[in-house]
Amino acid sequence: MKKIELTIPRLGESVESVQLVRFTKNIGDFIQENEVIAEVSTDKVDSDVPSTNSGKIIEFRFNEGDEIKIGEIFAIIEISDDNSSTKNEPELVEVHQSNSTPKVNQESIQTDQFLSPLVKSIVQKENIETNDLKQIKGTGRDGRISKNDVLNYIQNKSVTDIISSNSLTNNSVISTASFGANDEIIEMDKMRQMISKHMKKSKQTSPHVTAYVEPDVTNFVKWREENKASFEAKYKQKLTYTPMIVECVVRAIKDFPMINVSVDETETKIIKHSEINIGIATALPNNNLIVPVIRNANQLNLEGLANGVNTIVNKARNNKLSPDDVRGGTFTISNVGTFGNLMGTPIINQPEVAILATGVIKKKPAVLETEFGDIIVARQFMYLSLSFDHRVVDGSLGGVFLKRISDYIENWDVNTQI
C-alpha cells in the first residue's frame, strides 16, 4: 500500500491561499479518482477539489474554516500498489461565484488564539467580545477555534443572555425584522450573503451620486440591425448592444482617465489604473449576481469586445468562471434594460468609483429642427445612469463623462465597417 499526499491546486495567478469550506468525505471512506474530496473558497469563487487517485482516506490535516496555502498538503489517501499513478495537480471545477469577502478589522479582535479569516468574519459579524471568545473551546487542529465551534457557541448562548430587559435603556433600541406565523423564513445561500455584504459595504464606503442622460440611439440601433447577421457570419459571434456600449465607455474613459481610479484603504491616495478592465454585471439563473471582467478592453476592437462579453457571460451562467475572471475590474456596466426597466440607480462595485446602468431602448416621438421648421418623428431613446463616488469624482467630472458616453452612442457612425 502506498500513501498519496493531496495538495491544494492553483486556482489563478493571484490566489495564494484558500479557506476550507468542508470535506465531502470522512476518514476511512473510499474515494474515486477525480471525485470531489473538498470544497474550498477564495474571496470570489468557490471551487471543488477532486482527488488525484482512487484510494482510502486516512488523514485530514485541516478543519473547516482553516486557511490553506496553494500547494499545501491537506489530506492523505492510501492506495494499492497497482494504482500508484498520480497527477501533478488536480483539476479545479468552479461551482459558483460570490462577491468579494469584506475584510475583517483584525484590530478589533484581541486574542492570542489563531483565528482563520472566516472565523474572524463570523466573530465580528456576531459582535462576540474577546472575553466571550476565550470561553469557546477549539476543536480544530492544535486547539484552534473552527467555524462550527463559533456557530455552536452562538446557538447555545441563551437569548436572555444576549437581549434582556435589563440591558435596554431609554437610549438603546433593538430593531429586528418581525414575521407572522404564516411567513416563510428563507436562509440566504453563501453567495447571497456575500452580495449583501458587498452592497452594504459599498454604500457605507462611497457617497453615491447618480446622474442621468437620454441619448437618441436611432443610428446605434439601425447600425446593429443592419450588421448583426454579417457580423455573426464573419466572426462567429452574436453582436449585442453590450460590446458596442463597452466600446463607447472605453473611449470616454480614455478622455476622462480619472474615472478609471480607486481609493486606497487609507483614503489618502488615489490609484490611477493603467488598464481599463470593464466588469459586466451578469444575472445568474439562481437570481444571484456576479461581475466578470473584460481585461484590457481598451486594446480590443468590436470583434474582441463581442468575444469577451459573450465568453465571460456564458462562463458566468454555466458556473465556469475562475477567480481571475472576476478580479481587477476598474469600471462596471449593468444592463437594467434586460428586465424592461427604463433606468436604474446602480451601486458602485468596490473598489471602483463609478458604474453605468443602461436602460431599455424605447421608440418615442421626438422634435427635430429642420430648415422648414420643427417636425415630430419617431426616434429610439435609451436612458443612461451613472453612479459615482463623490469622494473623488465631482459632479462636473461625472456629468461630462456621462455626457461623453452619450455622445459616442448618439453619434455612432452608421458607415462603420465590420
From TrEMBL:
InterPro entries, sorted: 2-oxoA_DH_lipoyl-BS (IPR003016), 2-oxoacid_DH_actylTfrase (IPR001078), 2-oxoacid_DH_E2_comp (IPR050743), Biotin_lipoyl (IPR000089), CAT-like_dom_sf (IPR023213), E3-bd_dom_sf (IPR036625), PSBD (IPR004167), Single_hybrid_motif (IPR011053)
Residue ranges constituting the Peripheral subunit-binding (PSBD) domain according to the UniProt record: 114-154
SUPFAM superfamilies: CoA-dependent acyltransferases, Peripheral subunit-binding domain of 2-oxo acid dehydrogenase complex, Single hybrid motif
Domain Lipoyl-binding stretches: 3-78
Protein EC: 2.3.1.-
Any one cellular-component term (Gene Ontology): cytoplasm
Domain of life assignment: Bacteria
EC primary class: transferase
Cofactor: (R)-lipoate
UniProt keywords, alphabetically: Acyltransferase, Lipoyl, Transferase
Family: Belongs to the 2-oxoacid dehydrogenase family.
Oligomeric and partner information: Forms a 24-polypeptide structural core with octahedral symmetry.
PANTHER family: DIHYDROLIPOAMIDE ACETYLTRANSFERASE COMPONENT OF PYRUVATE DEHYDROGENASE COMPLEX, LIPOAMIDE ACYLTRANSFERASE COMPONENT OF BRANCHED-CHAIN ALPHA-KETO ACID DEHYDROGENASE COMPLEX, MITOCHONDRIAL
Protein name: Dihydrolipoamide acetyltransferase component of pyruvate dehydrogenase complex
